[in-house]
Amino acid sequence: xxxxxxxxxxxxxLSRGIDQIKADxxxxxxxxxxxxxxxxxxxxxxxxxxxxxxxxxxxSEQNLAGHRKGQAHKRRLKExxxxxxSQEVADKVVGLGRExxxxxxxxxxxxxxx
Length: 114
Ligand SMILES: [Zn+2]
Prior knowledge:
Shape: flat
Radius of gyration: 19 Å
Oligomer: single chain
Bound molecules: zinc ion
Distance between the termini: 60 Å
Strand content: 5-15%
């Protein structure tokens, strides 16, 4: 018996970060990579009705259409739009997410002038 079962890190969080969603919107590949981590039979409407901006699945086309007219969706669109307009904010958000990663690579940046 040598079967080692690696316990996978749970990725079942429903809410997807804004920067993730922006990547989804920019690249179909990115989006389908995310979607392929979900089993269609676990998803509402078998994963057919998806709102990219909100990273949410819906039961039916009607539900999705209704959602797209609703407040939550509009707020999300605004969020995405506003972020796109101020690259500074976007950089900050990305920076926050990658802080841990940065610290393992380039550490201190000195004031080197050449
Ligand atoms: Zn939406």
